[in-house]
Amino acid sequence: MNQDAALALDLPRGGLYAVADGMGGHAAGELAANLALDTLSQQYLDGRAPPPERLAEAVQAANLAVLRHAVGEYVGMGTTLLALLVDRGAAIVAHVGDSRAYLLREGELHRLTDDHSWVAEQVRLGNLTEEEARHHQWRSVVSNALGGEERVRLELFGLPLRAGDRLLLCSDGLSGVVADPALLDLLLRPQTPDRVARALINAANDAGGPDNITAVVVDVLHDQRPPHYTLPVRQGDGPLYVDVLLSAQRGSSPLTYVLLILAYFTLLGVMLMPEYRVVIGLIGVTLLVGVVVAQRVTRARLGRPPPRPAPIRAAPAPGEPREARKPFS
C-alpha cells in the first residue's frame, strides 16, 4: 500500500509544493497523507495572513484534520509533512518529520532540513554515523509527525532564491536509500524537473526500493524581487510548537518595534502634557503613518525591476508521484 502523497499547486507569485509520508495500518497512512495535503492547500488558499504565518496556520490545520480523523480503525495514524512555498524571490519551508528538502545551487547540494527522528538525534549526539543511521533498524521511527497532539511542532524558515536554483522535496523512500553524492549527480543533470524526478525514483528503485518513493523537483528560472515581509529565521532548537513560532514571527519585524516605540512616546507625551494632547497626537499619528509608508516605498524600490512572468517551472514525476513505488518498477 502506498502511503506517500505529493502536492504541486501553482500560485500567482510562485507555488506551493509538499510531500507527506503517512504511517498507520488499514490504509490509515494513505488517508493521513492525502488528508494533510488537501487541508494544507485549502487552508493556505483561504488564509489572509502574511505567507509565513499562513503556511504555519495551514500546517496546524492539517495536523488537526489528521488528529480528528484518527478514530476507530484509524487510531494512531499520522504523517510527515514537508511544505515549500515559493513566493517571488524567496522560499519558505515548513517541516514536520523525516521527509527532506535539498537545495542545489552553483553545483553544490545543501540539505535544508534535519530529520525529526530517533536515529537523526543519535547522529547529532555523535552516537551514530550517517551510514549507521541509514541502515539502523529504527531508521523509520520519527519523533515528530502530524496527528500526534493538538498543537503541531514544526520548523519554519525562509531563504532567498536565485535563478538557476533547483529544489528537491522527497520522502525517505528516496533519501533513505540514495546517498547525497548520488542525489547531487542526478540533480545536476540538465533535464526538466519531471525527468529528473523520474531519474531519482528510478535510482531509489535500483537501490532496492524498500519504501514508497516520492520526489518533487522545482526549478527557479528567473531572479525575482523579494517579498514584502520578513522571512522567518530558522531556530536552533529544532521543531517548536506552532503558537510559539507564530508569536515569534509576528513580533520579529523591526517595524513592529519602531511602531511600538512611537506609540509609547506619543501616549507618554499626551499624559505628561495634556494641554498639548491634540498636537502630540497628530504628530504621533503622522510619524506612525510616515514610517509605514517609508518602509513600503523602500521595499518597492529594492524590488525593481518588476517581476517577470512564470518564475517557476516545477513538476513531480510523470503521472502521480504517489504511484511511483517498487511494485511498478
UniProtKB/TrEMBL annotation:
Residues 1-220 form the PPM-type phosphatase domain. One of its GO terms (molecular function) is protein serine/threonine phosphatase activity. It holds the Pfam family PP2C_2. Keywords: Membrane, Transmembrane, Transmembrane helix. The chain crosses the membrane at residues 255-273, 279-298. The keyword Transmembrane applies. Residues 304-329 are annotated as: Disordered. Residues 320-329 have a biased composition (Basic and acidic residues). It comes from the Bacteria. InterPro entries: PP2C, PPM-type-like_dom_sf, PPM-type_phosphatase-like_dom. This is Protein serine/threonine phosphatase. It comes from Deinococcus phoenicis. The lineage of its organism: Bacteria, Thermotogati, Deinococcota, Deinococci, Deinococcales.
